[in-house]
Here is the input.
Amino acid sequence: MAVLAAATAEAGAGRGGLVMVRADPGLGLSTLLDAHLAAARSAGLRTWRVPVLPSGRTTLSAGVPEWTEPAVVVIDDLHRADDPTLLALHTLADSLPRRALLVVAGRHRGVTPARFAQLDRIALGHDLPPLDRDAVDALVAELFGAGPGSPLRESAEGAGGSPWLLARLTDPDRASAVTGWAAELAGADTGLLRLAALLGPAASVDRLASVSGSPPEEVLAALGRLGALGLVEQDAARARIRYPLLRADLAAASAGLRPSLARRLAGRDAEPEAVVAQLGGAPMDGWTADWLTAHADRLVTRPAPELVDLLRRATAWLPPGDPRHHRIRAALAEALQWSGRLDEARRTAATSLAARPEPPERQRLRGVLARIAVAEMDPDGVFAALEPERVDGRLPPRLGVLHAYACGLAGDLAGAEQGVVDAIPAAAEDPVVEVSMLNLWAVGRCVEYDLAGAMELLDRADAVLDIAVSDPAQWLQSRLMRAVVQHLRFEAAASDTVEEARPVAEALGAGWLAWLHTVAALAAHNDGRLAQGLAEVDAAMALPDQYGMARPLHATAALILLRQGRLPAARARLELAEQHPGTGIAMFYEQVLATTRALLADLEGRPGRALEIVRGVADGAVGVRAALSVMGAGSWLVRIALDGGDHDLARRLVDEVRNRTTDPSVGVRGALMFCQGMVDGDAELLLAASHQFAGIGSEVAAADAGDHAARVLATSGRLEDARAAHRDAISRYTTLAATGDIDRSTAALRSHGVRLGATGSRRRPKHGWAALTGAEYRVAELVAQGLSDREIAARLLVSVRTVHSHVSRALGKLDYSSRIEIVLGFQQRG
Here is the structure.
């Protein structure tokens, strides 16, 4: 409007011109031109609106009229005008700069642009864009009174900034109105536009040609015409309807075409998923039931919501005794299971089994029950579901690998390994058995800390999944195990693998999702994303059930809280972890709980208890395999052993790490260097380990190795080198917001006379609660609970003299004179 107002003022002064306004249909061009005419009339100018007849003729077709000046002339829909009109405009345009006459022409932007190239060169051009977000919000608020957060605002997103579509958001029969508008624009190409809407957000040219029965070149030409109207956008060999709202309304108004479109797709060997998309709202009939019976097996592992509805309707439509019943019901149970609707799947499978189906369908139904039990980390449920199918002591191969999974969940690793052996013959013929066997085998390799072997097996499993098998659970198992291996290798890629797996875990739900959150929390800790690690734990604990994973989840949270210096919160998390038994997959994470227990005991001044826990890990009393427990927490265990003065235990742990370190990865070699450097007091080896960890994105391990290097350097008197290593470690800890690590590192180096100054580490204050060490805080906490020094010593497994020293130092730092003041101080802190 500002452009047109300025041009009108120029024309009134005798300097007329031609303005060309271009826009796609629905963007309000006609309304804009009408508003301009009204403004010109209000300014006292003569106005003419030149219509374009259906034939293309206008008042300019016979030559340029004699318009009284000063005046404004508007020609709308110029794209439909005949050639004489365009020639007259060319002639008129030459004289306009010397006349008090403004001519404003409006046309659809993409329609035969070559016809208007010469006019575009001599006219003042203006392209009318769609409304931006602010304008859309203002228009919706004005038209419908819809404020922020209104569902109508969300619907308006689909209008793509088209005022015409926005104005019809609340029309009672919007689909018919929008379809009519599009059909009027598209003309003979309306049928193709409807097909494009039905085929989804992006329809291929080949698919459109196939279902329309038109040659591809004709389809391309039609899409070009629809694109010129702004209705369709083309990208390579695919076409998209420009406005999501238009596509949805066209599809709704064309729903009656879906059954015939489904048959055309099926007859042209389209992928079954495309057929299902058309059958979702179609009435059930014999052809649909037959087609579902033939194709359901392929569809159920990636079930669209339309498939579950179709299968339900098919079971209701089929007459009693129909031979298709059992197969359709088995497919329905599988589709429900793979959709994460486990209770519905369980009920459907159980009622279907009661109808005594033949062995193929019966075994499929029992497989559903077993997979549900696997997802719920319930090995007994798996055994119960499979036992009726055992013949001569053996299960069918696909059920046999499920039984092997259950053995693993029950901690029977020998049974799981035997299941792998039993599956080998069938794996050569059945890719489902093969991928299950490979994933199981990878678990065994990982438990033995053969990470390279585990990764090789996972690569093979991925190849089978890519080529021959569609099984979301096996795919997810492979992804999560890959993330576990990457985590044990200290690789930052573990977090990327978790994110790749997250959508499938969320779809399958149950224990899969709890396990994913556990892997994600540990990977986030490795990467130094401590807040994200806690968020993963909290998200898992918000689930209705953690399926046995609450124990490692709370333990992981406690580990992170220790790094943040939040000892009371870490202690509370450990107490929660202790309340949950370690079952199913959680048994493979016992070293996390044991290590965190030992770290807390060490920080609380209970080295005896910390060493006791570490010895238990080294002796194989923790977790399912000593190899996994020791290797998964090697550096922490070695450090605690050294801090506790048990060098023999530390060397024993390092020997275990060295003997197990066959993996060529940088992270595993770095872990060995870290452990060896601590035992040998080799600062250079520790610094090299820190450098290796930093290179693969494991910031926590890099900081820890650098911190220990600084301590070794300070002990050997190399104070300047110690200060440099300490500064680097503190910088890393600061980036990680690992306040607890900063405090512990600073205190350890200060005892050797190493200080960083004002720009270095954050020093512990000399007075107040923040001045207390972890051990002093724990003793003060027990004093506040009313325990005597002797009772505290018994609780912490330390001497009474040690407790008395902690109490004295705490009183001094708090500026208290009695134990009563400690009690009152704790009450005030809440």
Remarks:
- The chain has a mean pLDDT of 88.
- The CA atoms of residues 420 and 441 lie 7 Å apart.
